[in-house]
């Protein structure tokens, strides 16, 4: 059992509850609230200094991981030189379930957090390097903005179906700068059919394609306009909304481009980034996200723990003599890492004209398929293989080779 004084904190948004302990079940005082303000944090530090003076031991600070709420508190105490332990909520929840009565109060939770810490062994939450923190924040914001961008595209398409139904047959990429520029200038079949042919060609010229390509696209636009059956009621308001969505899409594209450039900028501060990029299937965006979520590979004593952190390890269900053989993945740990690994795996197993992008992953995937595994199960198994490959590459600091 750990024998150190502890400051146990139950974190909330702007006001938390703390409890001080000299040792296991040796509370110094009743749990007390404090604000997340410089003055209250300073007073909390004074209490820690007094506790250290009384016990002769430097206190540890213990709290639950609560997303963004716990980050400033963690950083504050780390900067002050205290050992900070951040508990997984699953661990404190397990302790809570032991209670016969269903009680949920902040003071009780503060005591419970300390109890979980004293009865177990935990690893100190090490400060993360600044460039990894910058990268992690950017990657997560990129994912969020990308989700918004996808939603905007869907809404844009629903309006376009009313205004200019056949327009999407002309451009392979409906939200490309050229397609959006043409649509903003000629937002309806009537606008295309009323325009001079040379006006349409001039609108296509910024794409810097050949004259033949401009002529072909002009013919396709005119044909699409003739074959479209738009919803002619509320047409003006729909055109107005369509142009608003075009502006929004262009703005979101610029934001995503800017964030992505910053992601690469911060990723290049790490020697692990080129190692990740050496793996076939791991692109720019997936490499930065994987790096941001893993951080220092030394945090994981084994590949198995890295797999568990990603949440693609199989859950286990056994009861008596029954042992389930159809278990889903745990989906615990980092959802951002899980998504990036899945995307990299799908890219890696893809087969191209020149052969598979990542022969090792492709062979492993096909072996699982030949064993009778469903496609999704085979992909998850291959994603597991991909993570173990990443663990080996980052641990050895050697780039990918066919023998990995």
TrEMBL record:
<dbReference type="InterPro" id="IPR047650">
    <property type="entry name" value="Transpos_IS110"/>
</dbReference>
<feature type="domain" description="Transposase IS116/IS110/IS902 C-terminal">
    <location>
        <begin position="275"/>
        <end position="350"/>
    </location>
</feature>
<dbReference type="Pfam" id="PF01548">
    <property type="entry name" value="DEDD_Tnp_IS110"/>
</dbReference>
<protein>
    <submittedName>
        <fullName>Transposase IS116</fullName>
    </submittedName>
</protein>
<dbReference type="GO" id="GO:0006313">
    <property type="term" value="P:DNA transposition"/>
</dbReference>
<dbReference type="Pfam" id="PF02371">
    <property type="entry name" value="Transposase_20"/>
</dbReference>
<feature type="domain" description="Transposase IS110-like N-terminal">
    <location>
        <begin position="9"/>
        <end position="165"/>
    </location>
</feature>
<dbReference type="InterPro" id="IPR002525">
    <property type="entry name" value="Transp_IS110-like_N"/>
</dbReference>
<dbReference type="InterPro" id="IPR003346">
    <property type="entry name" value="Transposase_20"/>
</dbReference>
<dbReference type="GO" id="GO:0003677">
    <property type="term" value="F:DNA binding"/>
</dbReference>
<dbReference type="GO" id="GO:0004803">
    <property type="term" value="F:transposase activity"/>
</dbReference>
<dbReference type="InterPro" id="IPR010994">
    <property type="entry name" value="RuvA_2-like"/>
</dbReference>
């Amino acid at each position: 059992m750990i024998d150190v004084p502890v400051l146990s904190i139950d974190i909330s948004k702007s006001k938390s509850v703390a409890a001080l302990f000299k040792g296991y079940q040796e509370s110094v005082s009743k749990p007390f609230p404090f604000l997340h303000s410089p003055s209250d944090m300073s007073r909390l530090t004074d209490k820690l200094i007094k506790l250290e003076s009384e016990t002769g031991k430097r206190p540890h600070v213990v709290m639950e991981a609560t997303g963004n709420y716990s980050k400033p508190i963690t950083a504050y105490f780390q900067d002050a030189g205290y050992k900070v332990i951040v508990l997984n909520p699953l661990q404190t929840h397990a302790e809570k379930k032991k209670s016969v009565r269903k009680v949920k109060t902040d003071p009780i939770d503060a005591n419970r957090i300390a109890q979980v810490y004293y009865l177990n062994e935990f690893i100190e939450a090490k400060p993360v390097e600044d460039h990894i923190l910058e990268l992690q924040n950017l990657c997560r914001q990129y994912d969020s903005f990308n989700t918004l961008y996808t939603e905007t595209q869907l809404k844009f398409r629903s309006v376009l179906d009313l205004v200019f139904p056949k327009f999407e047959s002309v451009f392979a990429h409906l939200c490309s700068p050229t397609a959006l520029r043409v649509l903003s200038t000629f937002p309806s079949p009537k606008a295309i059919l009323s325009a001079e042919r040379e006006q349409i060609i001039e609108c296509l010229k910024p794409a810097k394609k050949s004259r033949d390509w401009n002529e072909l696209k002009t013919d396709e636009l005119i044909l699409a306009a003739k074959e479209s059956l738009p919803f002619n009621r509320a047409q003006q308001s729909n055109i107005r909304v369509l142009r608003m969505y075009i502006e929004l899409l262009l703005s979101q594209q610029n934001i995503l481009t800017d964030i992505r450039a910053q992601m690469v900028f911060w990723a290049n501060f790490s020697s692990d980034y080129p190692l990740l990029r050496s793996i076939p299937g791991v692109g720019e965006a997936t490499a930065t996200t994987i790096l941001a979520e893993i951080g220092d590979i030394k945090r994981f004593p084994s590949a198995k723990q890295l797999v568990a952190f990603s949440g693609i390890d199989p859950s286990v269900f056994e009861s008596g003599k029954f042992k389930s053989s159809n278990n889903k993945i745990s989906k615990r740990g980092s959802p951002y890492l899980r998504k990036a690994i899945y995307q990299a795996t799908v890219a890696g197993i893809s087969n191209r004209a020149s052969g598979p992008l990542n022969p090792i992953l492709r062979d492993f995937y096909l072996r699982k398929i030949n064993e009778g595994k469903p496609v999704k199960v085979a992909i998850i198994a291959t994603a597991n293989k991909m993570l173990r490959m990443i663990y080996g590459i980052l641990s050895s600091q050697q780039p990918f080779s066919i023998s990995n």
